[in-house]
Design goal:
A mainly alpha, B alpha+beta, C mainly alpha, B: alpha+beta, D-Maltodextrin-Binding Protein, domain 2, seven-stranded mixed beta sheet, two-stranded antiparallel ribbon, about 15% strand, C: mainly alpha, MetI-like fold, Oligogalacturonide transport system substrate-binding protein (chain B), signal (chain B), Bact_solute-bd_prot1 (chain B), SBP (chain B), transmembrane (chain C)
Chain lengths: ~290, ~475, ~300
């Protein structure tokens, strides 16, 4: 009796916190939805959701503007995914390989290499932009129709953030499983994809998910390396109409931003089950 | 094998690294070629209009030629450029122009990075300060006087052209000129019992009093940010003392005079003409057109570029009272104030077909293209261009009115380093420090004046 | 895999080398990637930091003058301190908050998928234009936060204009975007073996006790990971102050990366930008070394 009251209070507290925090988290999106129907004056006049004179013009402009046939919202979506998807796949594969090397083996110089890798997290991108540009330029990759500068590096585990993430998760997987597999005659490569990768799948999904979100949102990368408007990804397309000098319609920018994140929301919503299913399938039992 | 590869890669790295340093170091000293052309141009004349090309150019109308062009802006500018480019292609079917365009956000980073690698587009819409910042030795942009038989340079005034001469080279033609002017929301003024547009300092002070008494503490006749304050102070000082802010690479004002200028700004704050900086920052907007205070009419005036009115007009909840004001003369020695090149158009040195690129520039700003471009990039600075745009009825009346008033009034030159980011930057610029610090009460007028003069002379000597 | 199994097969030195360095083979792509894509930009920026390089004027001076300037100028020193303050407020708040929410979400909750998505939304919005507009509207003098405080009879500060509170607004923005850290905690929490809890419950340990004696130790690798990466990110924070306060008021929210950006792109003082970036690099590297050496006292690895 006493226990169940405490239990109920606990439940109530959980939901109370979840909903309260949830409201704070989701309100910007709710506001954005409302604002897509507002005029400029209304958008900056307060943060209410409703508007007196709703207009669909923002959405109409968002989906119809095609810049003389150069680029439309649909084209921008296709462009975005045409480099984001390879980028995600290559990041996950190359990162898991590098992470395996770092976390499962001992060899001379490993710690030094690991230190070098971690340290690449510490330098801000702004000071690397120009040397990188010069380098890609010497490879002939500027304005590459295949977005080479945006995804080729990910083939080589250059995304330290994810390599390190996978190293940490891998180190929580007990060694007995791969030792057992080794006794059964599995080589290191087989152990990686038969034993380690399946057990790691929740964090592999998380890694792919983050890379997906960040790459979709990346603005400066495509801006530097893509010149042809018909090749612009969504992140550039969203901002194309923003003229700081003579002004622009915010409802349209917000409508575009909203449309542009829908795939990301859907992907997140669907992918999250993979953390859970992945785990129950892998069944880490001490 | 692996070792061999990594060694090879490392060697290649080292080589490029060295090469990188080499180019950077060599660019410090102008190459002998550049020096000789510089000599010859000075020998000819410093006046932009008199220079002539060293050889005659003919536009290639037969071979297929590809050009690239870049600009920043919003939708209507993108559309105008695209239409103009189509028209250009009709006129010269052998020339294909591929554009790259985007919003201002990140654009300068993109272009400066590309320029650093000599990968800029052939024809480039540039900000005025880019000439000084990215081509201080004339290394990045072509001297357009070389192509004066293709571009009709006589369509631009000498003042406008001279502003684009950097390192003795006409590195761009001005697309438009711009300056600052007041805009008023007369609806609020009427509520405060004022019918006429303010035309003097006394009018401003009277408006401040009337606003506070009749409408309340939240109402101000004018709202100006930190950089606006610097410009307004410059207008005031130049008018009162009759000398340009900076001339011959030296600030012409003493500390006492600057203190006078700062106290002028202070008097506007004290008399409720303008809100203090803390008040404005607390209201949480990044530009005045996005403030609730402007939208609702609580801030009833701004001091802005002549190209900006449509943005402010359309932001108002009720824009029936939006009016282009009059310039205000604060002293009796001069009108004061300045106009500047708002943007220009340049040909990069990496361009393979400068003659055709020059033809494109002439088409866009002197020829048929100007009728299509209209006032999309401001009121055309080219006489022929303005005439064509007006004939095509492609000029926004509000912008034209503001531009005409500004250009008729201002009578002081503008130093190109006035807008150096070291001074103007909203994060760590000297103007921001001086005017915010002064308004916050962190500095008194003497301290603020000293910091300002130190900052200005620092920038001037660095660029001397 | 250096198991001490008795070796009966005669092995060539090459084969033995291969066996001892199996791990290295998995690092070949990374090593190549580092040499091809990272080594040059990194090395260049370090070289640049000892020059007064301006890409459009060249180099006229070599030496440590940038570093001297950084540690003697009042502006840069105070910006470095602000950045440290920012990191020390943001990182712990964000980690505690993300862990707390992940912990609650790990119970059987109805609509858990929906909650998780909702909590991740701020991170998806990232540096979107909408965030700047909304965040300002929340914290302006007559904004939502002060209106709510007003209900409780509290006169809130002018958040954005106040030299003390403005930094806090910027910190809150990043704490609010705790989604990525939360996702990783969730993944880690799911990996804690359920039988550990069962055993503890039988022993009569309370939920709080279980949390601190089972949950936290089991997920320390991920806590550690989040700590290190969040520190690195906090020291490089740019977007928050850039879109909301532009470093103001009176430089109260000017973080190092804003200055680096200004030097690199606005005034083209690439040498200064690189030097400042490398000072930051050293600072974060030191913190990380401290963190890594502390690992053996509190991070639990299965290996």
């Amino acid at each position: 009796m006493k226990l169940s009251t405490a239990h109920k209070i606990g439940r109530f507290f959980q939901y109370f916190v979840l909903i309260l925090v949830g409201v704070i988290m989701i309100y910007p999106l709710v506001w954005m939805v409302g604002a897509t129907f507002k005029s400029n004056a209304e958008i900056f006049a307060g943060i209410g959701f409703l508007t007196a004179n709703p207009t669909l013009q923002g959405y109409i402009d968002a989906v119809t503007q095609n810049y003389g046939g150069d680029i439309s919202i649909w084209r921008a979506f296709i462009n975005t995914y045409s480099f984001v998807i390879p980028k995600v796949i290559f990041t996950v594969i190359s990162s898991v390989i590098a992470a395996y090397g770092f976390s499962r083996f001992k060899f001379k110089g490993r710690d030094m290499l690991f230190g070098i890798m971690i340290s690449t997290l510490f330098l801000p991108q702004v000071v690397l932009n120009v040397p990188q540009y010069l380098m890609y330029n010497s490879f002939g990759w500027i304005n590459s129709p295949f977005y080479l500068p945006l995804w080729v590096p990910t083939l080589f585990a250059t995304e330290t953030y994810f390599v390190y993430q996978l190293v940490q998760f891998m180190r929580s997987i007990p060694h007995d499983l791969d030792e057992a597999a080794a006794i059964d005659g599995c080589g290191p490569v087989k152990i990686l994809y038969k034993i380690i990768a399946p057990m790691l799948s929740p964090s592999l999904v998380a890694c792919g998910l983050f890379q997906f979100m960040w790459s979709c949102n990346d603005y400066m990368g495509p801006l530097l390396y893509v010149q042809t408007p018909s090749k612009y990804p969504m992140s550039i397309f969203v901002k194309l109409s923003m003229d700081a000098d003579s002004g622009f319609n915010w409802n349209r920018i917000l409508a575009l931003s909203l449309i542009s994140i829908i795939p990301q929301l859907v992907v997140f919503f669907c992918a999250q089950d993979a953390f859970i299913d992945g785990i129950s399938a892998g069944a880490v039992k001490g | 094998m692996k070792k061999a590869i990594s060694l090879g890669v490392a060697a290649a790295m080292a080589a490029t690294l060295l090469a990188g340093c080499g180019t950077a170091a060599s660019s410090a000293a102008p190459s002998s070629e550049a020096a000789s052309t510089a000599d010859s141009t000075t020998a000819e004349s410093t006046a932009a209009s008199e220079a002539a090309p060293s050889e005659a150019h003919e536009i290639n109308t037969t071979d297929p030629i590809e050009l690239t062009i870049s600009w920043w802006g919003g939708d209507s500018r993108h559309e105008a450029y695209q239409k103009a480019l189509e028209a250009f292609h009709e006129k010269y079917p052998n020339i294909t122009v591929s554009p790259t365009y985007g919003a201002w956000s990140g654009w300068e980073e993109k272009q400066s990075t590309a320029l650093a690698a000599d990968q800029g587009s052939d024809v480039m819409q540039v900000n005025w300060n880019w000439l000084y910042q990215y081509s201080p030795t004339g290394e990045k942009f072509v001297d357009l006087r070389e192509y004066s038989d293709v571009i009709d340079l006589s369509q631009w005034s000498d003042t406008a052209k001279n502003a684009c001469i950097v390192a003795d080279s006409l590195q761009a033609v001005p697309i438009s000129m711009t300056g600052r002017i007041f805009y008023w929301n007369m609806n609020t003024f009427k509520q405060a019992g004022i019918e006429a547009v303010p035309t003097s300092y006394d009018d401003l002070i009277a408006a401040g009093k009337a606003f506070q008494e009749k409408l309340g503490d939240d109402y101000y006749p004018l709202a100006i940010g930190q950089y606006d304050r610097m410009i307004l102070m410059t207008f005031y000082l130049e008018s009162k003392y009759g000398k340009a802010w900076v001339e011959n690479n030296e600030c012409q004002y003493t500390e006492e005079e600057v203190v006078d200028g700062l106290n002028f700004i202070k008097s506007l704050e004290d008399n409720h003409v303008i809100p203090t900086r803390p008040t404005m920052i607390a209201a949480g907007f990044d530009s005045i057109d996005k403030s609730q205070e402007w939208i609702d009419g609580k801030y009833a005036g701004i001091f802005e570029w002549d190209s900006a009115p449509s943005k402010y007009q359309s932001a108002l909840a009720d824009n029936s009272g939006f009016t282009v004001g009059e310039e205000i003369k604060f002293g009796d020695k001069a009108n004061g104030g300045f106009s500047k090149v708002s943007m220009g158009m340049a040909i990069t040195k990496s361009c393979q077909h400068p003659v055709e690129a020059a033809a494109l520039i002439d088409f866009l700003w002197n020829g048929e293209g100007a009728a299509i471009m209209g006032s999309e990039c401001g009121i055309p600075a080219s006489t022929a261009g303005l005439a064509a745009a007006q004939a095509a009825d492609a000029v926004k009346p509000l912008v034209l009115e503001a531009n005409t008033k500004v250009l008729a009034f201002v009578d002081m030159p503008l130093d190109p380093y006035y807008e150096s980011s070291k001074l103007k930057d909203t994060t760590d610029g000297v103007y921001t420090d001086v005017f915010d610090g002064f308004s916050y009460g962190d500095y008194d007028a003497e301290e603020a004046a000293e910091i300002l003069l130190d900052g200005v002379s620092g920038v001037l000597s660095a660029n001397a | 895999m250096s198991s001490a199994a008795p070796k009966t097969v005669q092995r060539t030195p090459f084969k033995r080398w291969c066996d001892e360095n199996t791990g290295l083979f998995f690092l070949i792509p990374w090593i190549l990637g580092f040499l091809i894509f990272k080594a040059y930009p990194f090395a260049s920026s370090l070289v640049y930091s000892f020059t007064d390089l301006n890409f459009f004027k060249g180099i006229s001076q070599y030496g440590v003058m940038n570093y001297v300037e950084i540690f003697t100028s009042r502006k840069t020193v105070s910006v470095l301190l602000t950045t440290v303050k920012y990191a020390f407020i943001t990182v712990p708040l964000k980690l505690v908050f993300a862990l707390f929410i992940a912990y609650i979400l790990n119970f059987k909750i109805k609509f858990v998928n929906l909650f998780r998505t909702v909590y991740y939304i701020p991170s998806i919005l990232g540096g979107s234009v909408a965030i700047a507009v909304l965040w300002r509207a929340l914290f302006k003098d007559t904004g939502v936060v002060n209106t709510i405080l007003g209900f409780f009879g509290i006169a809130g500060p002018d958040w954005l204009a106040d030299k003390t509170w403005a930094l806090f607004v910027i910190c809150l923005l990043r704490v609010w975007q705790f989604g990525s850290a939360m996702v990783l905690f969730l993944a880690a929490l799911k990996g804690v073996p359920a039988d550990l809890y069962e055993a503890a419950t039988i022993d009569g340990a309370s939920k709080t006790k279980q949390f601190f004696s089972i949950t936290v130790p089991m997920i320390t690798p991920v806590i550690f990971y989040n700590l290190v990466t969040q520190i690195a990110q906090a020291f490089q924070e740019f977007n928050g102050p850039y879109i909301i306060t532009q470093g103001g008021p009176r430089n109260a929210t000017t973080l190092v990366s804003l200055l680096v950006y200004n030097y690199a792109f606005k005034s083209n003082e690439m040498g200064m930008a690189c030097a400042l970036a490398w000072v930051m690099f050293i600072a974060v590297a030191l913190l990380t070394v401290i963190a890594f050496t502390s690992q053996k006292h509190w991070v639990y690895y299965a290996d």
